[in-house]
Amino acid sequence: MKRIFSGVQPTGNLHLGNYLGAIRNWVNLQNDYECLFCVVDLHAITMWQEPDELRANTREVTAGLIAAGIDPKKNIIFNQSQVAAHAELAWIFNCVARMGWLNRMTQFKEKAGKHKENASIGLYAYPNLMAADILLYRATHVPVGEDQKQHLELTRDIAAKFNNDFATDFFPLPEPLIFGEATRVMSLKDGTKKMSKSDPSDLSRINMTDSAEEIAKKIKKARTDAEPLPDTAKGLEGRAEAANLVGIYAALDEVSSDEVLQQFAGQGFAGFKQQLADLAVAKLGPIQDEMRRLMGDTTHVDQVLKDGSERARELAEPTIREVQDIIGFLRA
Ligand code: TYM
């Protein structure tokens, strides 16, 4: 059986990186796999979240998933905190994973920054919870952006160690699915940094809630270089900002970067940016309209999450029971 699990944090706005690196791929995978898509609110609180904002962001991300084309009837869309087994399995994985493994996680280093001593234990153990998310459903495939690759390797290590420690083959080793022209969308202001919700500059990212004018303005102000566009993707080497914009164009238009460059070779960025802005508005506009409509219908969005959580709980329960037996917890 092929089963997909993936997640997105309800912290701040969904942005173009989330959409092109992950969510858009999820839409295309839903026909071939049984899928669970999770709004990972337990992960969100590894950094402080204002409670009302967390609630609003949970609804917004859910609306974004549905608006992007994920069918909540066919797939399971739910928020992590409502299925207690995620936290339960994460605890067990806290006892499987080694400190040395977590010490290597680059995301922790980036997020904790210079103040490591002040970071929450949750931020440190974050990858164990992510492993629990995936393995709780014994998912076989995990579609994510490039930045999650290291966490997926850790998930595989945890699954393998658990299987080895208890002489079982209970957990499958899940495969990452990282594909498309935009597996790592970069900041519009700095081609060496990934586009992120936590970047203090709003000009660095395109939010799924930005208006057409804002999208056009941000693309116009995006950093580029003085050279004209080359005729193949190879010619973009060493030109991070140019490569990023071409990659975004290719992903939005569902063609390769080489194909985009055939159209724009030799031109400067002014005309290219104008066309990129038009393309982005044309592709994102309908999703944004639907997202706004859904955000005005919180009853429906809440119902989707409630229904999804119930279905997820049903799938999670037998795993937890089996894990308890494997570990030797006496089931009362
Ligand atoms: P999060 O919320 O940071 O991002 C959600 C998804 O968007 C992708 N992504 C990007 N892709 C391309 N370019 C970017 N600039 C960019 N920024 C984000 C991410 O790779 C991700 O696929 N730890 C995860 C959430 C999570 C999860 C899971 C994912 C929790 N449990 C289990 C998969 C399976 C995260 O913080 O994603």
Task: Summarize the structure in words.
The chain is mostly helical and 332 residues long. The protein is built from 13 helices and 5 strands. The strands form 2 sheets. It has a 3-stranded parallel beta sheet with strand order 1-2-3. 40% of the residues are buried. The mean pLDDT is 97. The structure holds tryptophanyl-5'AMP. Tryptophanyl-5'AMP is lined by residues 5-9, 17-18, 21-22, 40, 43, 130, 133-134, 142, 144-145, 147-148, 151, 183-185, 194-195.
**Which structural class is indicated by helix and strand composition?**
mainly alpha
Give the helix level as a range of percent: 40-55%
Please tell me the overall pLDDT.
Answer: 97
Radius of gyration, in Å, reads 21 Å
Oligomeric description of these chains? single chain
Bound ligand species: tryptophanyl-5'AMP
* Overall 3D shape: globular
Structurally, the number of domains stands at 2
CATH architecture of the largest domain: 3-Layer(aba) Sandwich
Low-confidence stretches: none
Percent of residues in beta strands:
5-15%
What is the CATH homologous superfamily assignment of the largest domain?
HUPs
Number of strands: 5
**How are helices and strands ordered from N to C?**
EHEHHEHHHHEHEHHHHH
Tell me about the largest β-sheet.
Answer: 3 strands, parallel
Identify the CATH class of the largest domain. Answer: Alpha Beta
- Strand order in space, largest sheet: 1-2-3
